[in-house]
Amino acid sequence: MNKLLMFFCILMLSCSISHKDQDITKQKGTQDSMIVACYYFPNYHKNDSRNRKLKGEGWSEWELVKEAKPRFESHHQPNVPQWGYTDESDPEVMAKKIDAAASHGIDVFIFDWYWYDDGPFLERGLDIGFLKAANNNRIKFSLMWANHDWIDIHPYKLDSKRSVLYGGIVNKQTFNRICDEVINKYFKHPSYWKIDGKPYFSIYELNKLMQSFGSIEAARAALDGFRAKVKAAGFPDIHLNAVVWGRSILPGEQKQANPADVVMQLGFDSVTSYVWIHHVSLPKMRTDYKYVQDEYFKYWTKAETMFDVPYYPNVTMGWDSSPRADQNDSFGNFGYPFMHTISGNTPERFQKALYTVKQRLVRSKGPHILTINCWNEWTEGSYLEPDTRNGMGYLNAVKNVYGDTPDKPGADIGK
Asked: Which residues, 6+ apart, have CB-to-CB distance to 268 below 8 Å?
């Protein structure tokens, strides 16, 4: 009798846990929850076919990290990864990243995802590393189509011609292939991030999107076709997110368009940012972190009323693109990657920024979603991964503000 009772209790507990997970799944992305989505830049693995052809066997962006040096007074370079110069396409290496992220309050990796007319680029970190990691159920993932021109800047020599290696404008056939690829390969994966059952898909360059189709109306038709494909695959819809930055210029025109009008006409469901410096000019070589934070918050306030769809705020860890600048050139504010930096971005100040965003989100209607730049933008000086200077400081900052609490029970989110 006691054994039967014990079995019944275990069965009920199991059902309760399963039911709880389902409830968490339903709650995430709603007004009362917080979702922390962190961008991931996948250029830290060997044997990418394009990199191998251009840079040689075994090259990855780690080479620029290793070669970086101080360029001005009190400039800290190189930044040395505490975990070593690892290969993110190794599932065991990626599993370590997943565990660290999931254990420190991060819910989603938003992979910078590249696909040009001649095919994919930098896909091994996601396709081999993440998707084959044994623990990829601990965190959600999604895609930001990084549809920008890929320029030869690794490194960039001052005053040299900016050569476009892979163009961000794609043809209709490529776009259709992209739609089919992401639906079948990624959206259907159980760990793909969804908001209200809708796969989240972000687009980085709205100008390139519109130029690909020749007009804003044609671009809208293409996105509507994407929605139809997603619905035909069994999803209620797609959640299309726009990364808004820079100047919105309609194809064939020179006058700047209202970005809110562009977002509305293209039919996006939400807006976010990739990095603070897209909205804040850096006036000094060592621009103070708090100054950049305050200026970005002014943009956030404007964005909340500018757009007719939700704006998901961003928290940026730092900015220093000097590793992408040729180390033998003089360094100054000459144009990316020769540009001013953010200084004073300690883990403590980063945590204060995270907390300020949380308090402001709590007071808003929701959904309570924020993006972080970045998990691993090492050559732009914005990364959460541990280094030999601050250790796990930036990840602990995220955990201290957004870690497991009664209203954020674990990493199983989305639908």
From this structure: 240, 241, 242, 309
